[in-house]
Design brief:
Blueprint (H helix, E strand, L loop, with lengths): L5 E10 L2 E11 L4 E5 L6 H8 L7 E6 L2 E5 L9 H8 L2 E4 L11 H11 L5 H14 L15 H13 L5 E5 L10 H13 L3 E5 L3 H7 L2 E6 L2 E6 L1 H6 L4 H14 L1
Parallel strand pairs: 3-8, 3-9, 6-7, 7-8
Antiparallel strand pairs: 1-2, 1-4, 4-5, 9-10
Amino acid sequence: MSTPMVQVENLSKSFGDNLVLDSLSLSVAKGEVIGIIGPSGSGKSTLLRCINFLEKPNAGVIVIDGERITIDSHDPSKLSGNKIAHLQSKVGMVFQQFNLFPHMTAKENIMAGPRYVLKEKAEIYEEKATRLLKQVGLPEKADAYPEELSGGQQQRVAIARALAMNPQVMLFDEATSALDPEIVGEVLAVMRTLANDGMTMLVVTHEMGFVRQVADRVIFMDDGKIVEEGDPAVLFDKPTQQRTKDFLSAILSHTD
């Protein structure tokens, strides 16, 4: 069996007395697309933020592309900044909000990471930005500023910006939830193309149709734990856990 691209072992995270992730374990193969669903407050976003160390877990192990970090439950602050930075360099993340630099054009936003963080040569990061704008369907918006772009266009630029850092894994945290319904499809189309191209992806979303069509595996979370996981067609149509049945019944009836 090949080495997982992402592995989480007994991951725990608390905010004060609130236990958000409860000894959660997860393994993701290279090229696998994981859909993560569940009610608000179930720990979905915190899981992604811990994988990328935007939140520091209290305990557990995180492995990204063979890079292993063990969190000391007695002293989580012992984590090495250099090791975390190296792990973060392998992971791209796209958020609900686009977080583009307002004073930079679309192309400049995409070039910023390769230019200032990766220290790539100008001809490399300029070609990369042009290529990525084409990949997300916005070649004509290279010189547009964020305020001149629609929400869907801004989110596609944000995806291109994350891809510019050459990630091994992409994390999507409700990437379409801030968008008007009529432009959600254009962002999902970019994500679908990434999946078809073999990118390893963890996707927190309420877009059940996207999960059913694109995900290799779907995970249902509640109370900081994985309640149930499996093939989307099986889990959506024949969930085995009552909590999963209740959630899907509520959310699918709401979207009909």
